[in-house]
Amino acid sequence: MPLNARKVETALPGRHGDGRGLFLYVKPTGARSWVLRYQVAGRRRDLGLGPYPDVSLAMARERAVKARRIIAEGGDPIAIKQQAKPKTFREAALELIESKRPGWKNAKHAAQWTSTLETYALPKLGPMQVAKIETADVLEALKPIWAERPETANRVRQRIEAVIDYASALGIRAGENPARWRGHLDNLLPKPTKVRAVVHHPALPHSEIASFMGQLKDRSGVAARALAFTILTAARSGETRGMTWGEIDPETGIWTIPAQRMKAGKEHRVPLTNAALALLGQRADSTSYDTLVFGSEAKPGKPISDMSMTAVLRRMEHNDITVHGFRSTFRDWAGETTGFPREVIEAALAHGIKDKAEAAYARSDLFDKRRKLMEAWTAIALAQSNTDNIVAFSK
Question: Can you give the pTM of this predicted structure?
Fold first, then answer.
């Protein structure tokens, strides 16, 4: 029998049904509350509709009707209710990162998002309700780094904007996004590119590469070998760190990096010199093809960290250069001291061709010419009049 106002007021402790899953729960203390029981994907769910008398019988029925409508359309009222709960900026940021993670090519993107937000945004915005963040709050987070690190600051602004947009999409925030640039923050902050010229990755002069590699060969450990390999192949550090044995063909001296691991999303073949191959060590017969070549010694099955090669540079007291900067060293050497065509050098760096007409005719990856280029680079980098350098690196 359906409930009525009198029954609701006098019901004894227990569960009392009104029909179609709506129940009044009465505790031994006399406290009363409404619950809608339903199933979604075969799973039983209990949706709280509020306490009596704050929520009357009529109100409980009305809320139950709305919830049933959501269920009929394939939704889950509890999930929707949880999404609509107020969230802090930190909670919204972490949810957004998790939602984006499957679409990112590698874990580095998630790490970068997390790192920049934790360093520059969360100290100020993290504990705030995302629905209550205003322009002044965004500016307070950005201003300390806007002039000092404009490129980083702009990335932080974009990520703050994305988190707030995410909150708006969930329905827990209304109004304009206070982190938007055009027509808003562009009136309050100088354009990032006008604050300071873009600073490129500090690079070692190519005239010093042989001396540097001579110092590096005295360093032991996986990170030192990975750094030497990265330099000899002019690869990006992430490409080296994620390399597996299945990508290497020692017979032909070819390293094939799959498209999903490349910045441009296109498969890239790298010619490996004997010196580069020696740095890989010997693949054991039991090693699976998906085993990392430069795996972490501290965390088996994981690649060495992004900072491990940088740490080698710091221990060598090279605080003025970066791992990525060695690509510039290679580019400067190839462009200034060799006769190799520009397109061969750019192909070695896996750079896309910006000119669409030129790109349309660039059908070849110029692999044979790139192998000669990398052999010349290795000879310069290792000063191979002393072949002991190659042997030393492979130890």
Answer: 0.51
